[in-house]
Amino acid sequence: MQIPKTYRESRAVQYPEPVSIIIVKDEKGCYNPMSASWVTFTSIEPRMLVVSIGFQRHTYELMKNQTEFVVSFPSAEMSSEVEFFGSNSGRDIDKLKALGSATQPATVIDGVLLKEAAVNYECRITDQLKTGDHMIFSAEIIASHVHQDELPRIYMLGPGLFGGV
User: Fold this and answer.
1) What pLDDT does 48 receive?
2) 149 by DSSP, 3-state: which?
3) Cα–Cα distance between 38 and 138 in angstroms, integer?
4) Is the bond leading into 74 cis (omega within 30 degrees of zero)?
5) CA 153, CA 94: separation in Å to the nearest integer?
6) How many angstroms separate the Cα of 36 from the Cα of each of 12, 44, 49, 105, 107?
7) What's the Cα-to-Cα distance from 2 to each of 5, 43, 155, rounded to whole Å?
8) How many whole angstroms separate alpha carbon 31 and alpha carbon 17?
9) Is residue 136 within 8 Å of 57, Cβ to Cβ?
10) Of 1, 52, 151, 164, which has the fewest Cβ atoms less than 10 A away?
11) Beta partners for 25?
12) Do residues 90 and 98 touch, judged by C-beta distance below 8 A?
């Protein structure tokens, strides 16, 4: 039997939840990573995904002025990156430099891949849809990369709690 709960209470039982890192270039040429959970695959052919980003986020400001970005699915060893990229703003700090995160150049777009991520996707924005206080960016996946050691992904197990499944 279902019982009524607030939205916040119902969200607490939705874990584990996938976590990703969106990386988009800023106006100074720096690559800004932001942790995000709201990434969904939407099409096999063409290969597409969507990412939902809040209007108050620095990454939203960057995304609306760019045509491409990277989605990284962090490995189980990357909890410090997920936490740091999600709790600091690229308005204030070069997050990749501050954390010393290992990157490598993307192969098709002007972007960077996280070397220790389980998976990286190079994406080109195809459309946008406003949904309340977020913008959904749809994108075509134009290149895919997997860590050579086939590392397991990290998930959000609860607020501020990360680990494997």
Assistant:
1) 98
2) coil
3) 12
4) no
5) 24
6) 17, 22, 13, 21, 23
7) 9, 32, 27
8) 25
9) no
10) 1
11) 31
12) no
In the block, residue with structure tokens 């990357």: 78
β-partners of residue 32 are 24
What are 110's two structure tokens? 């002007």
Domains of the chain: 17-151 (2.30.110.10)
Residue 87 to residue 156: CA distance in whole angstroms: 14
Long-range contacts of 4-12 (CB under 8 A, 24+ apart): 12/158, 12/159
Give the three-class secondary structure for 115. Answer: coil
Give yes or no for a contact between 68 and 154, defined as CB atoms under 8 angstroms apart.
no
pTM for this entry? 0.94
Residue 75 DSSP symbol: B
- Between the alpha carbon of residue 160 and those of residues 35, 39, 40, 86, 111, the distances in Å are 12, 18, 21, 10, 28
The partner residues of 42 in beta bridges, in order of sequence, read none
List per-block mean pLDDT (blocks of 10 residues) for the chain, which spans 165 residues. 93 88 95 96 97 97 96 95 95 94 98 98 98 98 97 89 81
Q: Which pLDDT tens digit goes with each residue over 58-102? A: 999 999 999 999 999 999 999 999 999 999 999 999 999 999 999
